[in-house]
Amino acid sequence: MMTRFFSMVLVCGLLVAAVPAQAQTKEYIGAAKCKMCHNKQPTGEQYNKWAASPHAKAMASLKGDEAKNPKCLKCHSTAFGLKLSDTQTITVAEGVSCESCHGAGSAYKTPTIMKDKAKAMAAGLVMPDDKLCKKCHNAESPNFKGFDFKTYAAKIAHPNPAKGQ
Ligand code: HEC
Ligand code: HEC
Ligand code: HEC
Ligand code: HEC
After folding, report:
1. What is the distance, to the nearest Å, from the Cα of residue 107 to the centroid of all Cα atoms in its chain?
2. Residue 136: CB within 6 Å of ligand 2?
3. Distance of CA 38 from the midpoint of ligand 4 (Å)
4. Which of 12, 22, 47, 125, CA to CA, is 20 to 30 A from 31?
5. Dist. CA 35–CA 42, nearest whole Å
6. Atom 22 in ligand 4: residue holding the nearest Cα
């Protein structure tokens, strides 16, 4: 009886504790925040690799009024169209940023969560697949050149060599 009572208390406690975490909105934090931890050579300097990639330069492809056109911005900039609160540090100028592929980072960026992949995924980390890329890589793009996940993923690869990949 007592054991059962305590497990009931425990379950209720967990349910209560889970509510705020679920309701917490995940906000976009911008590539500069990821850079603090993801720009060391031994672990693959993901920031530098991204900064040299077409995704980081996607806004430079939009000329004149195109840079204000929602029809172009929706695929060329992660920050476009977000409701920016004061805490959000992502800019439209950074183009297709980390979080278009890896999900909004406010809840998974904490070191203790990041180090544990399962926890990070539960907090919104995404490991992108073919389907995610095709949200932008599709025929709606005026410059669509086709899309093959393996070939395209290799072109933007930024693995962590410390993990032996
Ligand atoms: C406070 C440091 C820190 C910040 C800030 C941070 N990360 Fe991480 N991240 C880590 C650590 C540590 C790991 C685990 C080691 C690894 O996989 O590189 C990790 C792992 C990852 C992984 C690989 C998950 C896996 O296990 O395969 C991805 C993807 C990732 N981070 C993306 C991001 C993105 C995107 C941002 C910014 C929105 C970000 N991180 C911000 C420290 C950080
Ligand atoms: C939010 C939209 C968006 C998503 C999601 C996205 N991309 Fe892109 N991608 C772009 C845009 C925009 C460009 C063109 C950048 C430029 O040159 O202006 C591009 C360009 C590229 C290029 C260069 C193509 C070339 O012709 O040289 C590669 C490779 C690529 N993306 C791979 C990927 C992969 C792999 C994924 C999924 C893991 C992905 N992209 C997800 C928007 C996106
Ligand atoms: C559905 C998403 C999407 C929309 C909408 C979109 N783009 Fe793009 N854009 C891309 C992707 C993805 C690429 C990369 C080309 C590829 O590999 O298919 C790209 C590439 C480009 C390039 C580089 C040219 C090249 O040949 O690589 C320019 C310039 C460009 N887009 C301009 C625009 C303009 C201007 C608009 C608005 C009228 C626009 N895009 C709307 C996704 C999009
Ligand atoms: C266009 C999509 C895209 C963008 C933008 C992007 N990534 Fe990734 N990232 C990927 C893909 C695809 C993988 C490989 C996923 C897998 O292995 O399942 C990956 C893997 C990673 C990993 C894991 C590496 C490993 O070997 O464990 C880290 C860390 C990471 N990305 C961080 C970042 C950071 C930080 C940024 C921005 C500075 C960024 N990514 C931008 C698509 C992207």
Report:
1. 11
2. yes
3. 10
4. 22
5. 14
6. 159
